[in-house]
Automatic annotation (TrEMBL):
Domain of life: Bacteria
InterPro entries to which the protein is assigned, alphabetical: TPM_dom
This protein's name: Membrane protein
Annotated TPM domain residues: 14-137
Source organism (scientific name): Pseudoxanthomonas sacheonensis
Length: 163
């Protein structure tokens, strides 16, 4: 059954057309005005048949994307990847080590649940924007902006569609 879901998955470009990607980028930029963290959003439509047959799961793909996209390469190790694997209906959040002990697994799961609700309602863009806002709330608690200190954008705001 999983193999069929991946073979016939809806395209990420269908759910997230260009104008939607730009609105998501705007949400990331707006959130990052409130904190010194870095948020990256990536979506993947499906996995290759070989990956599915080998049992590759969404979490492993998210962790691989986190490394490949260099989300760990921020000055204070506070990058966060929000990853969506459409074929498996999975949302994964991978946070860098600077957030260890600051944000609990339950808090990250809460963000995923917010997103899942909107995805199930057929609102993929709103799901991502709500997730970004929730992650920004958590980052603002632990890495607030410091007045008078410039904060550089270390990761791209434009969402990535992984093919």
């Amino acid at each position: 059954m999983r193999l069929l879901r991946h073979l016939f998955a809806r395209s990420a470009r269908h759910l997230f057309p260009e104008d939607s990607l730009h609105r998501i980028a705007d949400a990331i930029a707006a959130g990052e005005l409130r904190h010194r963290g870095e948020i990256l959003f990536a979506v993947e439509s499906e996995l290759s048949p070989g990956m599915v047959l080998r049992g590759v799961q969404a979490r492993a793909r998210a962790e691989a994307a986190f490394a490949r996209l260099r989300a760990w390469d921020t000055e204070v190790n506070n990058g966060v990847l929000i990853y969506l694997l459409l074929a498996d209906h999975r949302i994964e959040i991978v946070a860098d080590r600077g957030l260890n002990g600051l944000v609990s697994a339950e808090q990250w799961r809460g963000v995923c649940q917010l997103m899942e609700e909107r995805m199930q309602a057929g609102e993929p863009e709103q799901a991502v924007v709500r997730g970004i806002q929730a992650v920004s709330d958590l980052l603002a608690q632990h890495f607030p902006q410091i007045d008078g200190t410039p904060d550089r954008d270390e990761l791209p705001n434009l969402p990535l569609i992984l093919d």
